[in-house]
Amino acid sequence: MTTGEPYEDYDPETQQLSAPLQPPPAPVAPYPQGTCSFHLTQWADVTASNPYSVEIWLKDNNGAQIGYQDKAIASDSRPLLVGSKLEDLMVIRPESQKD
């Protein structure tokens, strides 16, 4: 085996690594482990073509804000994607049940 720079763990006599490779450490989430929560405020304007607006706060297990979406239009045909420190986007899709 030929290498440009010798590995610290490489043993040239046996041509093997002297220590087994370890998996990388698990990534640390940018928020405390536990249950996240959100608060959503919704406004309805039934006369508009997009009748719903929402504002959303996402909080971590300790109550610290990890995401926020200012008041924005959302509907069944136009879902709102909310980014945060979580890995996935939160999808908000309000819909009217005509009631």
Q: What this model shows, in words?
A:
The chain has strands spanning 10-11, 16-17, 37-44, 52-59, 65-73, 80-82, 90-92. The chain is mostly beta strands. The strands form 3 sheets. It has a 3-stranded antiparallel beta sheet, with no helix packed on it. A two-stranded antiparallel sheet has the order 1-2. A hairpin with a 5-residue loop joins strand 4 (52-59) and strand 5 (65-73). The mean pLDDT is 80.
Nutshell version of this structure?
This protein is mainly β and 99 residues long. The chain has no helices and seven strands.
Strand content: 35-45%
Structural class: mainly beta
Could you tell me the mean pLDDT?
80
Percent range for helical residues?
under 10%
* Number of distinct beta strands: 7
Helix-strand string: EEEEEEE
* Helix count, DSSP H or I runs of 4 or more residues: 0
Largest sheet: 3 strands, antiparallel
Q: Based on CA inertia axes, which overall geometry fits?
A: elongated
Radius of gyration, in Å, reads 25 Å
- Termini, distance in Å? 73 Å
- Side by side, the strands of the main sheet go 3-4-5
Residue windows where pLDDT falls under 50 for at least 5 positions: none
List the helices and strands and how they pair.
Layout: E1 10-11, E2 16-17, E3 37-44, E4 52-59, E5 65-73, E6 80-82, E7 90-92
Antiparallel strand pairs: 1-2, 3-4, 4-5, 6-7
Top keywords for this entry?
99 residues; mainly beta; three-stranded antiparallel beta sheet; two-stranded antiparallel sheet
